[in-house]
Amino acid sequence: MSERKLSVKNKISYGVGCICDNTLYTLSGTYLMLYLTTVAGVEPAAAGAISAVGSVWEAIVGPFFGYSSDNMISRLGKRKPFMLFAAIPVAVVTSLLFTTINAGPAVKAIYYTAMILLYWTFFSMEFVPYMSWGADLAENYYDRTSLRSYAYVFGQAGMLIGMVLPTIIVDWAMNAGRTGQQSWQLVGMFCGTCAGLALLISALTLKKGDRPKDDPEIKRLKAERRAEREAEGRQSLLSKGAAILREYFSILKLRSMRYLLMVSMLYLIANTIFSSDRVFFMTYNLGMSQKTISAIMLLITLSGIAFVPFIERLSGRFDKKNVFMLGIGLAGVLLILMRFVPTVGLKSVIAVSLFYSVANTCYWQLMPSMIYDIAEIDEIVTGESHAGSVISFQALSESVCIAIGLQALGIILSLSGFDETQPSPIEAGGVIMQPESALTWVSHSFTLIPGIFMVLVLLVMLKYPVTQEKLKKLREEKMLK
After folding, report:
1. 3-state percent helix, strand, coil for the chain, nearest multiple of 5
2. pLDDT tens digits, residue range 383-403?
3. Domain spanning 8-209+252-480: CATH 1.20.1250.20
4. Domain layout of the chain by residue ranges
5. Angle between helices 346-382 and 290-318 (to 10 degrees)
6. d(Cα 263, Cα 345) in Å, to the nearest integer?
7. From the CB of residue 400, how many other CB atoms can be counted at a distance below 10 Å?
8. Predicted TM-score of the model (pTM)
């Protein structure tokens, strides 16, 4: 059976959608803890718990969106309706999440918990169907890596919006006479609007891989679905949950899926701790200005773009499993070594940021491509397409690990004595106000802890069984049956 190749136009349309999820992901992953503690006035452990609750909630709702998009029958297709519906709420809820309220601790906890639940609900509503659409689009082993390369490059624009521009916007707004609270609300409005627009553009311009609007089969399929529901009764939420669990147990029978889930979970814990801690480290340990922090964030973004073609080329030559292993494992070793550098300054931060950028590019460029391989293997084994469930299962594990990472960092900050009421060295005229114990653990969370988890990724990935040759062999065996 011949494999259809994707046009550049379709790859670009798909890639634009990655601006949305990367904007939302990097914004919350980089600044939410900082915003909740130092701007909204939430105690660090409570801020970590609120952030973790959001990630756990994403793990709960993601599977339903994956399952629903697999079984959706509409004139707009299977995946597109979810993306279109989420676009405007994404913009509104992101603005509200970064709106500071003047209230007591209990009311603040309720408000920000509610906002974070809505934030991750609409994130899941667009992210899981969007990622699943990629599995529908790319049929070729190499094409999957190419498609994700396009998505990753556009995703760097999302990183620019969600990771680089916030501190620039805050600095500009405060120089213009706005308060810190007003400045961060402006960040939320700007990032939410950009994310929603990118989602709309991707959904409206991408035509391939989903059911066309004028498909003559749509009316017949919808009529059959109505007849089934009338005969059996509308599927309850409980029965849908049971169906999802059955699919998950079936997917877990794949050894390759089990290993890839472990790899994903280990990396996401490392990534969450590093991403959420780095602004604390640069602000409180080194006393960097917002402009310097923005410049370093921009370096991470640009270096990520620069690494993409090299990783794609190397993956085609040496197999993406080996490139993934080497990129993340080597970055982990270097991060551990950097913790023991006697003098930490701007050059050290740049070096750590570049090590991290290599690992991050390998993960986000190659992990989705490998998940698409798993979706194909599952279809070969079961004879049915469960791409949405495979994607949502992996997203579920990511959400759980993000929750673990956020809660862990919140506990680390709290137990180490970090005081959210103390000003940064820039605000205090160069005087470091945080206790030494807090600075030590902030430093550990920037290098040592994520480095250890990345080395564990390398060790687990050694046992991952899927390669291009093995997948090709499975396809040939399927064709002979």
Report:
1. 80, 0, 20
2. 766 666 777 777 777 778 888
3. yes
4. 8-209+252-480
5. 40
6. 31
7. 18
8. 0.72
